[in-house]
Specification:
Layout (H helix, E strand, L loop, with lengths): L2 H23 L4 E3 L3 H12 L2 H21 L11 E5 L2 H5 L6 E5 L4 E9 L8 E3 L4 H6 L5 H19 L10 H23 L3 H10 L4 E7 L4 E7 L27 E6 L6 E6 L4 E8 L7 E10 L6 E5 L5
Parallel strand pairs: 1-2, 4-6
Antiparallel strand pairs: 2-3, 3-4, 5-11, 6-7, 7-12, 8-9, 9-10, 10-11
Helix pairs in contact: 1-2, 1-3, 6-7
Length: about 325
């Protein structure tokens, strides 16, 4: 992710916590927790020009009423304190993808938001000469066969790096880097699946995290804010003492089977994974830098999701 995209993402998170704080503090006792992530997001907010700040606030304001409807406990006023807190980046590395956590500690209740600006990729994971994706993604180290298959590919990239080559000038990279690396990746997934029948579920849990949350995506081009419901454990959409949400958020079923794994037709850089229960994943590999290095990045996206994953479009009140 570029520095500009990172700053915009952090600034959009800041817009959300401010918008939530403004609305909720009028209805109940609410506090924004001060931490290093709040400081970083605040800095990014003030880097933005006034037009971008306005866009972020319009985007957040468009979806707040829907979040309040989905979660009646937000407005339930029992005299307790509700806190809004940015998660640290370390939490994401540990498998908790939520950016903002909203808590009522007195009743042991919380929900989270994963906030995205102009993209919906689930992860941007890497393959490299050192990174063990199997251990990180599903808890089983990659096999010797995998490392043997990828070693000559990464050795070539190391040599190109030593010559300070650029990716754009790397000859035949599609057939000598992308396709053989993706083939080794698919073979390793198939080997791991043969040893562990729970692999499909683990792959999805790696992508969506271990906590239930709402993914909030700002689509600036279409003046929309999209809310998606990742409710695997049934912790979202709980009623308050006096209200049940008018919107029902179903529980998602995780996959139990990999149906197909293949290179996407007519491409040389994308793997498609089809799983049961409505899940389909795209793994698009690309260079992470203009300079050649022995590391490539996946843009991982959900192409298909279960019908029980709600996607709610909130139209902006003003166009940008």
């Amino acid at each position: 992710m570029s520095a500009k995209s990172n700053d915009q993402g952090r600034a959009y998170e800041y817009a959300w916590i401010q918008a939530l704080g403004t609305v909720l503090s009028k209805k109940r006792k609410t506090r924004i927790v001060k931490n290093s992530s709040l400081e970083a997001n605040t800095r990014s907010w003030f880097i933005m020009d006034s037009k971008m700040q306005e866009t972020f606030m319009i985007s957040a304001d468009a979806a707040i009423d829907t979040i309040l409807e989905l979660e009646p406990k937000l407005l339930e006023n029992d005299g307790d304190e509700l806190t809004l807190e940015f998660q640290t980046d370390k939490k994401g590395e540990e498998g908790d993808v939520r950016d903002v956590v909203i808590r009522r500690g007195a009743i042991g209740w919380e929900i989270g938001l994963s906030i995205k600006h102009n993209h919906k990729d689930a992860k941007h994971s890497r393959l490299s000469h050192r990174l063990d994706f199997g251990k990180k993604w599903y808890g089983t180290p990659c096999s010797n066969e995998y490392w043997s298959d990828v070693k000559p590919i990464f050795n070539r990239l190391k040599e190109a790096k030593a010559r300070k080559e650029l990716w754009v000038n790397l000859q035949n990279k599609e057939n000598e880097v992308y396709i053989p690396l993706l083939t080794a990746f698919m073979n390793e997934i198939n080997r791991a699946y043969g040893r562990d029948s729970d692999l499909p579920q683990k792959l999805i849990e790696y992508l969506i995290g271990g906590k239930d949350y709402y993914k909030v995506i700002s689509n600036d081009r279409n003046n929309l804010t999209i809310i998606q419901t990742f409710n695997v454990h049934g912790n979202l959409n709980k009623p308050s003492k006096v209200k049940v949400s008018a919107i029902t958020v179903p529980v998602l079923a995780l996959p139990t089977e990999i149906v197909a794994l293949r290179l996407k037709p007519d491409t040389d850089n994308t793997v498609e994974m089809y799983l049961n229960n409505g899940w389909e994943i795209s793994y698009r590999i690309h260079n992470a830098s203009s300079k050649v290095e022995p590391s490539l990045k996946f843009a991982i996206d959900f192409v298909g999701v279960p019908a029980t994953l709600l996607s709610i479009e909130c139209k902006w009140n003003r166009k940008i």
